[in-house]
Write a structure and sequence with these properties.
heterodimer; A: alpha/beta; Rossmann fold; 2 domains; six-stranded parallel β-sheet; B: alpha+beta; six-stranded antiparallel β-barrel; six-stranded antiparallel barrel; 17 helices; globular
Chain lengths: 311, 531
């Protein structure tokens, strides 16, 4: 039976069943509707927000990709603090990733700058949102990416800490191996979830294979992220052909700050030296272009998923 | 899904309560029965509600609330005059400051309003008299307490309709002024006192202000909400069409009614009945501008409306199966022979139940020579005779008959078939389009919760070669031979063959029974045809 495994991105999320329902609804409400349930396609979600947050976000409507007035609605919910580097390598990584987002110092941000500067330098500076929201987004992004790629031991209050990368990898591997999935099997990943999906499909030995991979609003084009995926990642052999049988389609919005300035990465993830990833540009509406549901409502995403599922 | 008792649990408790009330029941058992009457009302299980309300009345004839709920059961089951006979003495004996007095008089107004609703000719003397009495019934409590917005909003609606009909009733009352007062009262209400009827009442009262910007904004507040309830939007829709007559007023009014219908059908438990002429009108008229769809229905307004229009288009391919020159006996639908693996592939055939049409007329069915097929939404004046039954399967298997018509059908599209059955989860729904009970000239669009099926991946068919589906609507079943559609694409997944039964054995060897409708999966019918 055809199956879609979703994996979410940065920031706190609603409870897993609600998030899965919201994402399926977004596909079903696309301009080219793809109601997975009606089509007999089962689906599941790799959920990892609980490793970072004490409890799920109860404001479910904030995650439906309509509002842009709270941190929760713009992938900045949960009150994450900027990560503290433990080594010089981590400090360099955080600093470089931060520079992708903004050129401004903490003091300049605190001085209440205009939402969109006259000459925007960083990816986040192109986003017409107030800076208190952009700061929440940046802290969340840097914390989640750092903790995963450096496998930090972490837990929300009153819970024993766990190794973030190891724990999420295990969840992803187990989700792919769930009983009853025959195929076609497609992974649809968003944001930080694209890094996790790639990491597992390329670098984790006991991870199962899938037929297709879709990445939405992915930071996998950012050099600092690619560096942390070595040695398995190589520019001329970065495609996860070991576990992705058919295609990898990357969907991006040029104004999505999480993609940084490298939203297309066909040349970064080649198969035997040749481009193999299909990059598709879309234009999400509104000020916050990174929203998962906005990507999922794109007809191009539905058409790609339909094709990969053989529908 | 809520955490309260399920429909089956409430029904089971109600049956136990009925048994207890027949014997020496305790005070606790009587209290439980009283509470269950209201729960059954909320679940719209009127038949059982009426039985239990009657049983409670025999034990405690002075229980005013139970008597009032009993009257509501009577109204909702088409016995408005009996409800009036019950409510009038109840209102007379209750003190005017008793909260049940206002409820009883309001319901008296509703009973008269229902008689007006049901009148085919709203200008007839009976309808006008009912309208007048309804106005009187709502006027008294409203004038005693202008904070009573329920009475006030009904007064606005009924007065507006009376004025539109040219009736001279309560000439001293100005509906626009009352509407303004109701809106002001509602807006002044503290947030903690606003109940679930606050927004619907505000939306309806806004109609009386005749300011479309305010009307659209107030309607959107509850219609577009993610927790909107089908019974509330159904109630608003009934008021807007039957009392306000919005469909016949102007283009904006018609568009508003259509948008409410689209939203209602999308909601869990949504059901619509439309006359064939309404279906034709909706098919022909252009969609409202996208901006207004979003203004009223929210972000997905355009998609919701498009989905609804597709459903309306599908209805054109649904036919009434009638006894020649006689009553409806069931429903059938148009399919392309090629989709069933038959030749000639382009021929259009009609599928219905074996128990609706079969060669011998067994199971009280029609013989082909006695049956005619009418596509009432597309071409109501053209009956098609049945030339022959090209394939059939008895009631205990697929309960299906595939009909070739005497003359080819033109201008009506065959229904598309789904390649797979929906995934079973707590959000899975199916829709039925049919002619329930065969009794009135209307199409019914009904949202059903998909309970289970015997298809992949976990299905375990109990009858070899037959794949069944179970689904349930909060209202009645019926509609033998109707197509069962998946919820978003309006593709046919099954042939409906049994509706509204309780005690239906669960599928896939699961223990126990429940109330369910049953259909046969199209793919198993096609497989049997090909065998």
């Amino acid at each position: 039976m055809a199956h879609v495994t979703f994996i979410h991105g940065i920031a706190n999320k609603p409870p897993a069943p609600d998030l899965l329902r919201i994402w399926r609804e977004a596909l079903a409400n696309s301009g080219d509707p793809l109601p997975l349930g009606d089509l007999g396609v089962t689906s599941s979600l790799v959920y990892w927000a609980d490793l970072f947050y004490e409890k799920p976000d109860e404001d479910i409507s904030a995650h439906e990709g309509v509002l842009e007035n709270t941190a929760e609605a713009v992938d900045g919910g949960g009150g994450a603090e900027m990560p503290t580097p433990r080594t010089a390598e981590e400090a360099v990584f955080i600093d470089a990733l931060r520079k992708q987002m903004t050129e401004m110092s903490d003091a300049q941000i605190a001085a209440n700058p205009p939402a969109v500067p006259v000459n925007p330098q960083g990816a986040l500076e192109r986003v017409p949102l107030p800076w208190f929201l952009k700061k929440a987004i940046m802290s969340t992004f840097l914390r989640d990416v750092h903790h995963y790629l450096f496998d930090v031991e972490y837990a929300p209050p009153a819970r024993p800490p766990v190794r973030i990368q190891q724990t999420i990898r295990r969840r992803f591997v187990e989700a792919l191996a769930a009983p009853g999935i025959t195929g076609p099997h497609v992974v649809v990943s968003h944001s930080m979830g694209t890094v996790i999906a790639y990491d597992c499909l390329k670098r984790v030995a006991d991870c199962g294979g899938v037929d297709g991979l879709i990445t939405l609003g992915s930071p996998l084009g950012v050099d600092e992220v690619q560096d942390k995926l070595q040695p398995e990642w190589k520019r001329d052999d970065g495609f996860p052909h070991e576990r992705v049988a058919a295609g990898w389609v990357n969907v991006f919005d040029r104004l999505d700050p999480v993609c940084g300035f490298d939203p297309q990465f066909a040349n970064d993830y080649c198969k035997a030296g040749a481009a193999a990833v299909e990059d598709i540009a879309v234009q999400n509406e509104g000020a916050w272009r990174h929203s998962a549901t906005k990507y999922l409502r794109q007809p191009a995403v539905c058409q790609t998923l339909r094709r990969m599922l053989g529908l | 899904m809520g955490d309260g008792p399920t429909i089956d649990e409430v029904r089971e408790r109600a049956q136990k309560s009925l048994a207890a009330l027949r014997g020496m029941c305790s005070d606790d058992e009587l209290s439980e029965a009283r509470a269950l009457v209201e729960k059954l009302r909320n679940q719209r299980d009127y038949e059982l509600m009426g039985k239990l309300a009657e049983a409670v009345s025999r034990r405690d004839p002075k229980d005013a609330k139970n008597r009032r709920l009993y009257a509501q059961y009577l109204i909702d089951t088409g016995k408005a005059t009996a409800a009036i006979d019950l409510l009038q003495p109840l209102a007379r004996r209750l003190p005017k400051d008793d909260p049940e007095f206002a409820e009883a008089t309001g319901l008296l107004g509703r009973a008269h309003k229902q008689i007006f609703f049901d009148a085919g000719d709203k200008g007839s003397s009976g309808a006008r008299e009912a309208l007048k009495k309804a106005i009187e019934a709502y006027r008294g409590p409203y004038e005693r307490d202008p904070r009573s917005t329920w009475h006030g909003v009904n007064l606005v609606a009924l007065l507006s309709r009376a004025r539109a009909l040219g009736m001279r009733v309560a000439p001293d009352l100005d509906p626009q002024a009352i509407a303004a007062q109701v809106v002001a009262t509602l807006k002044a209400m503290p947030a903690e006192k606003r109940d679930e009827w606050f927004l619907p009442t505000l939306a309806e009262a806004s109609l009386g202000l005749r300011d479309w910007a305010v009307i659209d904004e107030n309607i959107r507040q509850y219609v577009a909400a993610s927790d909107a309830k089908a019974f509330q939007i159904g109630s608003t829709l009934r008021q807007f069409t039957e009392v306000w007559d919005l469909e016949n007023r102007d283009e904006r009014g018609r568009a508003l009614v259509d948008m409410l219908r689209a939203r209602l059908l999308r909601l869990q438990g949504g059901e619509l009945r439309l006359a064939p002429e309404d279906l034709q009108r909706v098919r022909e008229q252009p969609a409202p501008p996208e901006g207004r769809l979003e203004a009223i229905l929210g972000t997905y307004g355009a998609q919701t409306y498009q989905w609804w229009k597709t459903g309306i288009e599908r209805a054109a391919s649904v036919a009434a199966i009638r006894q020649k020159m006689g009553n409806r006996m069931g429903t059938g639908f148009l399919l392309r022979a090629g989709d069933l693996g038959r030749e000639p592939a382009g021929e259009l055939l009609v599928l219905t139940n074996f128990h609706v049409v079969n060669e011998q007329g067994t199971n009280q069915a029609l013989r082909p020579a006695d049956a005619e097929v009418v596509f009432e939404a597309a071409d109501p004046g053209k009956p098609y005779g049945v030339a022959e039954i090209v394939w059939t399967s008895p009631v205990d298997r697929h309960d299906a008959s595939l009909l070739r018509l005497e003359t080819p059908v033109t201008g009506i599209a065959p229904l598309p078939l789904a390649a797979a059955l929906p995934v079973i989860d707590d959000t899975a729904r199916v829709y039925i389009i049919g002619h329930p009970g065969g009794r009135d000239l209307s199409f019914s669009f009904q949202d059903n919760e998909l309970l289970d099926h015997e298809g992949a991946p976990a299905g375990n068919p109990q009858i070899p070669g037959v794949c069944r589906l179970h689904y349930r609507a909060p209202t009645e079943g019926g509609s033998s031979g109707s197509p069962v559609f998946n919820s978003r694409l309006w593709q046919v997944i099954g042939l409906h063959h049994m509706g509204g039964k309780i005690g239906v054995r669960r599928l896939n060897g699961k223990e126990g029974s429940y109330g369910a409708n049953e259909g046969i999966a199209m793919q198993s019918i096609i497989a049997a045809m090909r065998a």
